[in-house]
């Protein structure tokens, strides 16, 4: 298949299918920031000691904030997480350098045709009806035994070294957060990681070029992440948006230097029997600056069973029956594509029936 073009200009916007239907277009600009998404410091997360007089431990305080954020939005930001700021800036610098490489260098890792990892324009899914205004480079980092380094770019220099370190450190942070969520569900702290069997990790680096008409398109369409939890590192430009009322209103997440945005995915939502939301989000672009974000998806193993870990008295399971994560993932992605296809068909039908309507006589 011919590689997708990377000429990001007015013509590509109109001719290559990036224009969204009106109801999907951005409602809020990329830089009108909201402070509704909680920012939680993880300082003292390992401190189990409560002071005298019935005062809560720092861990219990952090746990309470995380749980509230997961119940309200399924999204929050963490600071004081212990990940070295130099690692974050190296990772960001190298990721930016990758996207500045000549097209032929990036296309050495072309992912079209379903290859597992590499570079692609717009989407990891083939058959999207409207395209996302982005380029991505993605690599599968866990389980380590399944790594295929031939799909990891070897340029810029040090990319592989830094990405390996980044993956390992983020796996540690994600497991810490999953411990907190397990405890909040009244389960042993390893419950969520055990439910993942052998946790998968996939890193997707999103590069959103500046766009001549950002009001007509999206960098990344509205979605929920399929996995357990996602840690997102974003630059200071802004563009990540979330909704917790089914898309009626949107907020733009305030970028914070060195913070991670944490999104709960569908797997996390199902395992908590719906108590924790799967973050409903999208990314918008702008006409002045390109933007970079790095999403680390923590997923269960493909063969892991997806089903609520605990169903409280008086509640019903939100799932009819257990399924494997591989099946859940396939059903979700093909469902997302099918929905978009049906929407396009309905729109075309409406346009055709409008064309066929007899023109009314106008009596003056
Ligand atoms: O790029 C993404 C974002 C996201 C996603 C979920 C559902 C969609 O229909 C969609 O277009 C994007 O989650 C992902 C999950 C993956 O396994 C790979 C990705 O590239 C992504
Ligand atoms: O770029 C962003 O802010 C959002 C990225 C995202 O949602 C994703 O990669 O799944
Ligand atoms: Fe996402």
From TrEMBL:
Which superkingdom? Answer: Eukaryota
Q: In which pathway does it act?
A: Secondary metabolite biosynthesis; flavonoid biosynthesis
- The answer, when asked if Iron is one of the entry's keywords, is yes
What is the originating organism of this protein? Lactuca virosa
Give GO terms: molecular function aspect only: L-ascorbic acid binding; metal ion binding; oxidoreductase activity, acting on paired donors, with incorporation or reduction of molecular oxygen
Bias-annotated ranges (Basic and acidic residues): 12-27
Magnesium listed as a keyword: no
What is its cofactor?
L-ascorbate
- Enumerate the residue ranges of region (Disordered): 1-32
Keyword list, A-Z: Flavonoid biosynthesis, Iron, Metal-binding, Oxidoreductase, Vitamin C
InterPro entries associated with the record? DIOX_N (IPR026992), IPNS-like_FE2OG_OXY (IPR044861), IPNS-like_sf (IPR027443), Oxoglu/Fe-dep_dioxygenase_dom (IPR005123), Plant_2OG-oxidoreductases (IPR050295)
Name this protein carries in UniProt: Fe2OG dioxygenase domain-containing protein
Query: Where, if anywhere, are coiled coils annotated?
Result: none
User: Which segments constitute the Fe2OG dioxygenase domain?
Assistant: 196-300
Name its GO BP terms in alphabetical order: flavonoid biosynthetic process
Per its UniProt record, what Pfam families does this chain match?
2OG-FeII_Oxy, DIOX_N
């Amino acid at each position: 298949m011919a590689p997708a073009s990377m000429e990001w200009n007015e013509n590509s916007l109109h001719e290559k299918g990036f224009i969204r239907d009106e109801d999907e277009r951005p409602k809020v600009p990329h830089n009108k920031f909201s402070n509704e998404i909680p920012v939680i410091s993880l300082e003292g997360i390992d401190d189990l000691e409560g002071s005298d007089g019935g005062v809560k431990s720092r861990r219990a305080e952090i746990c309470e904030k995380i749980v509230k954020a997961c119940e309200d939005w399924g999204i929050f930001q963490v600071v004081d997480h212990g990940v070295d700021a130099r690692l974050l800036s190296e990772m960001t610098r190298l990721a930016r350098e990758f996207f500045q490489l000549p097209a032929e260098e990036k296309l050495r890792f072309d992912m079209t045709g379903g290859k597992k990892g590499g570079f692609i324009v717009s989407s990891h899914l083939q058959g999207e009806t409207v395209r996302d205004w982005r380029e991505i480079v993605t690599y599968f980092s866990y389980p380590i035994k399944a790594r295929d380094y031939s799909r990891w770019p070897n340029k810029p220099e040090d990319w592989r070294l830094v990405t390996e370190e980044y993956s390992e450190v983020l796996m540690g942070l994600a497991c810490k957060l999953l411990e907190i969520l397990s405890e909040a569900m009244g389960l042993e702290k390893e419950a969520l990681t055990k439910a993942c069997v052998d946790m998968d990790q996939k890193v997707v680096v999103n590069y959103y070029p500046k766009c001549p008409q950002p009001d007509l398109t999206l960098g990344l369409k509205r979605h929920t992440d399929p996995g357990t939890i996602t840690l997102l590192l974003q630059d200071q430009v802004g563009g990540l948006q979330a909704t917790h009322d089914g898309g009626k209103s949107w907020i733009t997440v305030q970028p914070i230097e060195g913070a991670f945005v944490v999104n709960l995915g569908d797997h996390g939502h199902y395992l908590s029997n719906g108590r924790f939301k799967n973050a409903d989000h999208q990314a918008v672009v702008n006409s002045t600056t390109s933007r970079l974000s790095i999403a680390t998806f923590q997923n269960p193993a493909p063969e892991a069973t997806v089903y609520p870990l605990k169903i409280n008295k008086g509640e019903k399971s939100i799932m009819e029956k257990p399924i494997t994560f591989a099946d859940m993932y396939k059903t979700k992605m093909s469902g997302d594509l099918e929905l978009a296809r049906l929407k396009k068909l309905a729109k075309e039908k409406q346009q055709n029936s409008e064309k066929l309507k007899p023109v009314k006589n106008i009596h003056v």
